[in-house]
Amino acid sequence: MEIIKLAIVEDNMSAQRALKEKLNDFPDICIQFVAANGLEMLQLLQSDASVNMILMDIQMPVMNGIEATLLIKKEYPHIKIVMITIYDDDDSIFNAIKAGADSYILKETKADKVYETIIDTMNGGAVMSPSIAAKALRVLKEYSNAVPANQLKPAEDALSLREREILENLSTGLTNKQIAELLFISPFTVKRHIENIYRKLQAQNRTELLSKAKNKGWI
Question: Using one digit for the tens of pLDDT, what is the confidence trace for 147-202?
């Protein structure tokens, strides 16, 4: 069993405890650090950057989660960052996307869904709470940097029927596991199809993927 080294960045002690309690029952999760703000997290990473993932709050003193995400992604691109917050307004979603957040869920998310988000994000997916996914699609057009269609080769510019099905489900905020159950295929198969979609659209993250797909009229 591969251990996921996790860090929590949260200034509210009650919220810190709640997150720890949600993850206590999962033996493959090891909480490496807990920080009260983004600056403290950056300082901890200078001494040990072995963490795989950070659960990041947004509103914090000294340095907020958006600023911290931007700096961490530049310095430590291997670290996955999940925004876990009470904020689902357009500005927060848009700024988190621009900063490079991999996933975005609400603090009210149940323990099993938090765990599922961690696993899916570690496997290259991008998870959003349903209410956030709907809003994210609206802000994509403000964040579109799509590659013109004529820059893609014809063979690279075509998705299979299955890939289109998966893309449509990705756009609604479903996780890899949920898509697998919906289409009666394995999560591994879903992951492989998603990797092909990323390659064909030359996308680096889910936001860019959906932006390019939307620009091409695929979703």
Answer: 444 443 433 456 777 888 899 888 888 888 898 888 888 887 888 888 888 888 88
Residue 17 tokens, joined:
């405890």
How far, CA to CA in Å, does 65 sit from each of 72, 82, 145?
10, 10, 24
Other C-beta atoms closer than 10 Å to the C-beta of 83 total 27
**Under a CB-based contact definition with an 8 Å cutoff, are residues 161 and 172 in contact?**
no
Sign of the CA dihedral with 55 first, then 60, 65, and 68 last: negative
- CA 91 from chain centre, in angstroms, equals 17
Per-residue pLDDT tens over the stretch 124-137:
888 887 767 666 66
The 10s digit of each residue's pLDDT in 191-204 is: 888 888 888 888 88
Residue 124, Ramachandran bin (φ over 0: left; ψ between -120 and 50: alpha; else beta): left
Phi, psi of 97 (to 5 degrees): -60, -45
Distances (CA, A) of 50 to 32, 53, 144: 9, 9, 32
Q: How far apart are CA 24 and CA 70, in angstroms?
A: 28
User: How far apart (Å, rounded) are the C-alpha atoms in residues 6 and 50?
Assistant: 9
Per-residue pLDDT of 48-68, as tens digits, reads: 999 999 999 999 999 999 999
Residue 58, pLDDT score: 94
Other C-beta atoms closer than 10 Å to the C-beta of 15 total: 16
Residue 115 token pair:
């765990």
In whole angstroms, give the CA distance from residue 33 to residue 29: 12
